[in-house]
């Protein structure tokens, strides 16, 4: 098996055991979903600061009606008013 690649070995295993196809599909779907969620956290979260020179504190620029949570069950962000001071 010194000359075979990973893709060829995977193809042979799938050909021998077709029940592996759904498992490989779900594993691929889970890995893709995790990668997209990490990308979303890195780009949209106010806790992450990519540009420290122009925007050193990005959490201070959020208005109260900005929704940055992934899922807000009982909070309507459009009705919130500003109740904190400007820094």
From TrEMBL:
One Pfam entry name: B12D
Lineage top rank: taxon: Eukaryota
Spans traversing the lipid bilayer: 20-43
Alphabetized UniProt keyword annotations: Membrane, Transmembrane, Transmembrane helix
Keyword Membrane: yes
Record-linked PANTHER family: NADH DEHYDROGENASE [UBIQUINONE] 1 ALPHA SUBCOMPLEX SUBUNIT 4-LIKE 2, NADH-UBIQUINONE OXIDOREDUCTASE MLRQ SUBUNIT
Name of the featured protein: NDUFA4 mitochondrial complex associated like 2
Gene assigned in the entry: NDUFA4L2
């Amino acid at each position: 098996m010194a000359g075979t690649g990973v893709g060829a070995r995977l193809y042979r295993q799938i050909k021998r055991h077709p029940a592996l196809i759904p498992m490989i599909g779900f594993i691929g779907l889970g890995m893709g979903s995790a990668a997209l969620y990490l990308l979303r956290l890195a780009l949209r979260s106010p806790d992450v600061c990519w540009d420290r020179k122009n925007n050193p504190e990005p959490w201070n620029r959020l208005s109260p009606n900005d929704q940055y949570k992934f899922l807000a069950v009982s909070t309507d962000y459009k009705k919130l008013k500003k109740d904190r001071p400007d820094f």
